[in-house]
């Protein structure tokens, strides 16, 4: 498969269009799912090295043994080729200095099915805090099948990423199908690049012309696409959002899972939010997703009435205790979709660290309800962490762009720093 364009096109795109740097230092257990033995070397060798160097564990799941890599060569001993490719994989991992547990699924090369992969991958992905696979829109059908299966099978608490392989040789990076809004780049050191070259050299069967063939699977021109200074990853979030049960588990036994009571980040964010409120006092305010009630307690002093709600019973109990004795505040259990969470006539709605946990259609529903509930000239405040939580379908920046661009609201206040985003918009 000869490239249609030069390798530096994707290199440049990674620098200019991927606005995030991938930080693998927190990946304690990375599960790498490959359609064939060499996918991980081509697309993710640098990441495997980074995780191993940081003390994390790497597990590799091979969907197939790559026995059909040379379909045009008649008379190929497929079983022998599979054994060869497995030996080459072991040599490549050694060249990368990555100790990895390898799980073989033994599914047919060039015949991978998403439904079968999804069922097989569920137990292997359980407990992972990160996974990677070939990108689900990659033009090789096996790569696409693996990518789609990982999205379906992975736990919502695991960060998932797809890496392009044949897309780097066949697609123009400016093609609209390429999701740069979810793009990350990983910079490779010279030591990483040298190790990756050695690992690719180990895949001899793919780099040389086979007997009876006329071209290698990985030509010299193709390999240049994978020997640059950057690897490219696309975040693959859960499409369904974070389930309530996940948060309920975090809040059990009086836990403070985000250190909202103690962390400087949380205390500073509350102070900035209060300072950003355009009015000194509000008649009726709503705070869905109130959590443990620290922001609720602070807002109560600025409101005649404050309706705070959360979908998690443990959070409601903690928030109610936090504002006990404050007559302006009332805390009850309700999901953000419920009209009780966003009562009619509100002149202030605060949505802090909430919307990015919702799928797009629920965000639309919440914004529709907020627009209906707010009085004319009422204020909507949104604040989110700038990183991308594992359980979130979108990052905070995407959510805020959606709200600032909503013609039902006029932007009033914007705060942007290295930790969080905050906007205040006013209902027109």
UniProtKB/TrEMBL annotation:
Q: Which residues cross the membrane?
A: none
Q: What is this protein called?
A: LmbE family N-acetylglucosaminyl deacetylase
Indicate yes or no for the key word Glycoprotein: no
Q: Which PANTHER family match?
A: BLR3841 PROTEIN (PTHR12993:SF29), N-ACETYLGLUCOSAMINYL-PHOSPHATIDYLINOSITOL DE-N-ACETYLASE-RELATED (PTHR12993)
- Entry's Pfam families? NodS, PIG-L
InterPro entries named among the record's database cross-references: GlcNAc_PI_deacetylase-related (IPR003737), LmbE-like_dom_sf (IPR024078), SAM-dependent_MTases_sf (IPR029063), SAM-MeTfrase_NodS-like (IPR008715)
UniProt entry keywords in alphabetical sequence: Zinc
The lineage's top-level taxon is: Bacteria
- This chain's source organism reads Pseudonocardia kongjuensis
Question: Do the record's keywords include Transcription?
Answer: no
